[in-house]
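Action item from last week, closing it out:
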Amino acid sequence: MFTRRFLFASTSRRTPRTRLVAALTVLTVVLTGCASTDRGDSSGGAAQDGALKVQIMSTSSTFTDLPTVVIEARDYFAKVGLDATVTHGAGNASLITQTVISGDADVGTSGTGALYNAYAEGMTDLVSLGTTNRSITFGLALSQDTIDTLAERGVTPESPVRDRVRALRGLDLAASPQGSTGNSYLRIMLSEHGVDPDRDVTIIPNNDATAQIASTRQGRTDGFAQSFPRVNFPEAEGWGGLWLNWAVDLPKLLPLASHDYYTTRSWLSKNPEVAKRVMEAMWLAHRDLQNPTAELRDDVRKLPDYADLNEDAFKAGWELAVGAYKGATPLTTKEMFDNQASLVNADRDKPLRFDFDDIYDLSAAEAAQPR
């Protein structure tokens, strides 16, 4: 079995003040747990039905980690003999790395940039078990007014990617804060086509995806960079459209280790069987995504995170995302590491100075690989 927990309720009706209070409350709980957690009691034990316990912490449920979504929709943790508690809703990936180090979670799943940065800053007990997403399931959506204005200048969503990127000069774009994977995607895309992300556009940082969408819909920003299916809302709801799809428009960086499962070496050494079963579930999810059926899509649609979404937005996001997982497995390659390291280094004053073998231990993923 697995249990789903959420750090936050939906923020769509919260004021900035209440969102801040909620975030500080969660951070206080996590930091308090750092001083009191006993790892030996929290994982690796057996539930009453014999399943092995594991605590997994994730960001909000999106298609950037579609394999975990599939695991939950198909109950694969239970099927491989795990009693898994999956906590969703961490506002940023760096909080997850700290929670894994503290022992409040056994395994974290988040954008890999946070993992690499944490390791570079001295958290060298962290170790990745493998990659859930080797592509970029992100896009940039613009308001319809902005799209119409750019069309008057001769640039449309069907124009070459170079023209679409250069047309962004002078616009205000909402994105996650600098240092995040989403922000890095945006900066790399702009820079690759000669647009200075610090001078030619205004990037407005915001950790709240709901607020990013609202700011564009209300005309306070011209567009926002987010994952599928969030970036599909404007077109589905009739107030904007998808302008850039990084899975297609930025192939230079692919493949890369964009989203990883990770833990600590100390936990892994004590719980090799739990780690293997976690990766067994991951292999099952990747198997399903090689032939994404309508039944699989409908199973995902029933999850609480997606049940109330606009149907057209969900379907559009699904179709764009599943293509990015074609041919993918949980086994990270050196090329994927190198490309992700290049992305992370674009935002670092000091480049990363560790190698693939320092931060990856694929033994669990290899042991779980179907024969």
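Closing note: The longest strand covers residues 82-90.
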